[in-house]
Amino acid sequence: MDWKKKLIRQFNRKGKGWSAGATCDPAEPNIFYECGGKGTSIAKRNSMTGETIAIIPTDIPTSIHDISIDPFSRTIWASLGGGLMEYHQLSMDTFKTIKKIKRPNNSFGIFCDREENGIAWIADQERYRILKISLSYGNELWHKKIFNEQGVPIKPRGIAKVKDGFWISEAREPGDGGILYKFDLDGNFVDKTILPYSKYSHDLGGLSVIGDSELLAMGGKGLPIYIINISNDNAEVIPDEPTDDEQFPTNPEEENEDVSDKEDIEESLNFIIKIIKAFFGLFKKGE
């Protein structure tokens, strides 16, 4: 896929995390929701202009990697960072948690199927796989290890399902360029595109789709949100420049946040330390 011919428009991310997520609303094509990769708020935005409509607090106790709207239940599923290893189902009225299921270790992206009720697709970084899970119980229904055109397994970070396959962003190392992959419905390599190189292009994050013809891709830290033409129309398009926008409210400690697996380890250790401190506090009181 020719990047220059396929990039339609772009605008700034709101979050300051290394990798972030987003979901486009199937019922309202001009609306998408963004999570910052660090922090617990969700931004409601216009997918044509990038305008911020609202910053919405949630009751999620840790960071949010990625989000996806379930078109059947009209709820949002959130892939949580930190030591919880959970997906939370959020009401789109209150943005409060109404259900939790287990998240595979080091998984990042989530995409709720738009044709099959109760199904989500997961980017399993640790095992180089695409997963199909039940949103009822979180159980795995299907998986496929994925490889690039050279037969090397890749770590999927973001995932979006379309009628003829999957779009995947690869979790890469610092110094690498960002890559988008296309796989067919059986998980076989079809095509790839390399994004323009920058310091954090390796942190290309979550993916979503607008209708059947546009892919939304979350750039790495300090990079834009990209809207990409994924239809068979090869007409060249000229992207808009990123627009300035306010950022998510953040704490000073959030300026140095890390990507998913390192963040999970850090938050897990902090959680364990809190438990140990609480235990010794109770022990001293009992002396």
Structure description:
- The protein has 287 residues and is mostly beta strands.
- It has helices at residues 3-6, 260-286; strands at 7-12, 21-25, 28-35, 42-46, 52-56, 64-70, 75-80, 86-91, 97-102, 107-112, 119-124, 129-134, 140-145, 156-162, 165-170, 179-183, 189-194, 207-210, 214-218, 224-229.
- The protein has a single domain, classed as Neuraminidase, CATH 2.120.10.
- It has a 4-stranded antiparallel β-sheet with strand order 1-20-19-18.
- A hairpin with a 5-residue loop joins strand 19 (214-218) and strand 20 (224-229).
- The longest helix has 27 residues, at 260-286.
- The N and C termini lie far apart (69 Å).
Secondary structure elements and their pairing?
Elements: H1 3-6, E1 7-12, E2 21-25, E3 28-35, E4 42-46, E5 52-56, E6 64-70, E7 75-80, E8 86-91, E9 97-102, E10 107-112, E11 119-124, E12 129-134, E13 140-145, E14 156-162, E15 165-170, E16 179-183, E17 189-194, E18 207-210, E19 214-218, E20 224-229, H2 260-286
Antiparallel strand pairs: 1-20, 2-3, 3-4, 4-5, 6-7, 7-8, 8-9, 10-11, 11-12, 12-13, 14-15, 15-16, 16-17, 18-19, 19-20
| Share of β-strand residues | 35-45%
Overall CATH architecture? 6 Propeller
The overall number of domains is 1
| Main β sheet profile | 4 strands, antiparallel
Average pLDDT rating = 86
Q: Determine Rg (CA atoms, Å).
A: 19 Å
Q: Span between N and C termini?
A: 69 Å
Total strands: 20
